[in-house]
Amino acid sequence: MTQRTVGPSGRGLPGPDELRNNGVVKNVGESPHEELATGERSTRNRVARSILDHGPSTVAELAERLGLTQAAVRRHLDTLTTDGVVEARDRRVYGARTRGRPAKVFALTDCGRDAFYQSYDQLAVDALRWIGEKEGGDEAIAAFARARIAAQAGAYRKAVEAVPPEKRAEALAKALSADGYAATARSAPVGEQLCQHHCPVAHAAERFPQLCEAETEFFAELLGTHVQRLATIAHGDGVCTTFIPKISHHASASTSGRNPA
Length: 261
What we know:
Strand order of the largest sheet: 3-4-6-5
Distance between the termini: 40 Å
């Protein structure tokens, strides 16, 4: 049986199976009212899934992606907000700020992310704490983080090395998505941004930043250029964002940036 956490509205948060279902499920014997409720829930799940896949989004962006009216999107967002699945925030602006107020976007909360993916967060935190206490403190945790990335490196390296340099960020994003990171690559001034809209280890990384640092170092080595981590889900941002400068033949992977937060 799917477990549900009741939100302030009393409707309950959709469980993982419901959120993963992108279709409208019609059960035999449903009354018209029950069928409507099922369809409404399925559409809310699509709204939440779109935010997971694309990161914090405006009402207009969600409406365009899902083929819904903005009024319908707002209605579903109101329910998701009440149930603690999403929250409204100002869109983070990188570089020079334009005139006017930042656009309002909707992002998944920790509770909303947990509805999509069940993980062993507390077990991971406990294990890392034990490693730190018994095996050498922060350096031992950093060594574990690097070893963890190295164990996953094969598929990422194969994907990146199979394409020309200008396609490497996109190839890495696809490989990360296959591992549940819901990653995308997009153009940015003088480079690209690699965006990971989900982090399976976000709660552990919040306590142990060595996990994020090892990942950033690996991206730099893999892509053959200095990279800079601009934002992380572990620090409370809506998406993990890594800036990848335009790759040149003289680029060096000897250092990598980290989130200044």
